[in-house]
What we know:
By secondary structure, the chain is an all-alpha fold. The chain is built from 5 helices and no strands. It has helices at 8-11, 23-29, 36-40, 45-59, 76-101. It is elongated, with a radius of gyration of 43 Å.
Amino acid sequence: MLIAAPAPETLMAADFDEPVFDDDFVRSATFTEPSASERARAPGKRERRRERRNARRAAHSGGPRFRRRGQREPSHRTAVFQVLAGILVLFAISFALWWWNSGARDSEEPVQPVVPTVTNSPAPVPTTAVPTVIPEA
Length: 137
């Protein structure tokens, strides 16, 4: 089954003589800055309330669980303590797992080791004689 390829004219998105953006798009996308008189006046009641609400939301964005009393970085001593506490926790976990896997300690009789059982049958006899002298090469 043969599939016809589209004509080369239809592959291009726009011709080179056409502008990529039309005038309506450019007019609607322009950003107008406030005039000098608009910048000079004091913000209204609604704008001040909106700014306070946004500032409050930004201050509480971490939620109540992650809020710190002071907005300072933790000290070096605190960081060292946290690392040592983490190492101690990992050591405690590894010791507990070792203790758990090492067996019972409260049994009265000692644990008998498991040894392979050996039958009393005689060893197989070799069918050929074992050479006593190594031949030279």
